[in-house]
Write a structure and sequence with these properties.
Strand content: 15-25%
Helix content: 10-25%
Number of helices: 4
Strand order of the largest sheet: 11-12-13-14-15
Largest sheet: 5 strands, antiparallel
Shape: extended
Radius of gyration: 26 Å
Order of helices and strands: HEEEEEEEEEEHHHEEEEEEEE
Structural class: alpha+beta
Number of domains: 3
Distance between the termini: 35 Å
Length: 318
C-alpha cells in the first residue's frame, strides 16, 4: 500500500504530444432506458445493433438519448461491467455500437469527459471553439461533431405558448390599456425587489459558483486507462490496478500537473515515500526517496511490466 500522504512535489516538467483513445464496438445487444423523453420525432428512429449489455437503470442510473443528423447516440454517464465480466466505457454509443468519448453539436449541451483526469463538464459547441478541462487544463478531444435534429433536454415546454395566449386574451377581453398597466406594475415591483434585496441576489450567485467549482474538482470513482485497456477504480485516495499492483493519482499541486505511481515491490522499498514519475522525453522512471527529493530509478529494478499514461503533463494547452 502507498503511504498515507501524497507526494506534492515533482522531479521536473516535460512537454508531450496529444493522443486520443480508440473507439470500440461490442457484439451483444441490449435495451436501454432513456432518462429523458421527447415529444416529437422528425424521422424514424434508427435500428440499434451491436449494443453494450448489462446497463440497469435501477442499478446504474439513467442514460440519455440524442438524435442527431449522422447518428443516434445513447450516453452512459459512467463505465460498468456486465454479468459476463465485460467492461464498457462511459460515453456515447451510436446505433452501430461504435463508442465515442465525447461528441458535440450546436445548440445542444453534451457531457464531455477529460481523458486525462476524468473531469466531466457540460459544453455546447460553437464554431471555432476548443473545449479545455477546467480541472487540469488539458485540451478535450472531440471525437465527433454532429448536427442536432432536435433538442434532447426533455418535452418541449408549453409555458411560452400559454403565456402568449393569456396576454392575447387579456388584450381582447380586458382591453389593451389595462394590459399595459398590468405590465408596468410587474416591472416596477420587480425593480423594487432587486433594489431592496441585493445581498440575497449576490449570495445566491456566489453559492452557485462555489458549488460548481467543488463539483468540477471532485475525483471520479473510476478512470479508463488506455495503456492497460481496463478501468481502474478508487481505492481510498488513489486509483488502483490489481493486475500490476499499481496505485496512481493525478497531482495538481505542481505545475504542470503530474500522474504519480506507487508500485508494490519497488515503491515499497522506500518506506514513507516511493512515488514514481515517468519522464517522456528521456524515457526513464524517477522515484521520490525523501521529502521533495527525486532520483533516477536504480537499474536493479525491472521496469518491463511498468505502465504509465502516455500524456502525464496535462496542465498545458496543446
Amino acid at each position: 500500500m502507498p503511504p498515507s500522504h501524497h507526494s506534492h512535489s515533482s522531479h521536473s516538467s516535460h512537454s508531450h504530444s496529444h493522443s486520443s483513445h480508440s473507439s470500440h464496438s461490442h457484439s451483444s445487444h441490449s435495451s436501454y432506458s432513456s432518462g429523458r423523453s421527447r415529444s416529437y420525432s422528425p424521422r424514424p428512429v434508427r435500428t440499434r445493433t451491436n449494443q453494450p449489455t448489462g446497463w440497469s437503470t435501477a442499478k446504474h442510473g439513467n442514460c440519455i438519448r440524442y438524435d442527431f443528423r449522422d447518428h443516434d447516440y445513447i450516453y452512459y454517464p459512467h463505465s460498468w461491467t456486465d454479468e459476463n465480466g465485460n467492461v464498457f466505457r462511459e460515453g456515447y454509443y451510436d446505433e452501430n455500437g461504435i463508442h465515442y468519448t465525447n461528441i458535440a453539436a450546436s445548440n445542444v449541451q453534451t457531457t464531455l469527459t477529460c481523458e486525462f483526469c476524468g473531469t466531466k463538464s457540460i459544453w455546447e459547441w460553437k464554431e471555432g471553439t476548443i473545449p479545455v478541462c477546467s480541472n487540469c487544463g488539458g485540451q478535450i478531444k472531440i471525437d465527433k461533431i454532429d448536427a442536432a435534429v432536435n433538442n434532447v433536454s426533455g418535452t418541449r415546454s408549453s409555458k411560452k405558448p400559454f403565456l402568449t395566449a393569456l396576454l392575447i386574451g387579456l388584450g381582447i377581453y380586458v382591453g389593451i390599456p389595462l394590459t399595459v398597466v398590468f405590465f408596468y406594475i410587474v416591472v416596477i415591483l420587480a425593480s423594487l425587489f432587486f433594489k431592496l434585496f441585493p445581498a440575497h441576489k449576490n449570495s445566491s450567485t456566489d453559492q452557485t459558483t462555489r458549488t460548481a467549482v467543488v463539483e468540477t474538482q471532485k475525483m471520479p470513482s473510476s478512470v479508463y486507462v488506455k495503456e492497460i485497456n481496463r478501468t481502474c477504480y478508487l481505492d481510498g485516495e488513489d486509483y488502483y490496478d490489481e493486475m500490476t499492483q499499481c496505485w496512481f493519482w493525478y497531482n495538481t499541486d505542481v505545475v504542470p500537473g503530474q500522474w504519480q505511481y506507487w508500485y508494490e515491490g519497488i515503491s515499497s522499498d522506500y518506506g514513507d515515500y516511493g512515488w514514481m514519475e515517468y519522464d517522456d522525453d528521456k524515457g526513464i522512471w524517477y522515484i521520490e526517496i525523501s521529502d521533495g527529493k527525486w532520483k533516477k530509478l536504480p537499474d536493479k529494478y525491472d521496469t518491463t511490466d511498468l505502465w504509465h499514461f502516455e500524456n502525464k503533463n496535462v496542465n498545458e494547452l496543446y
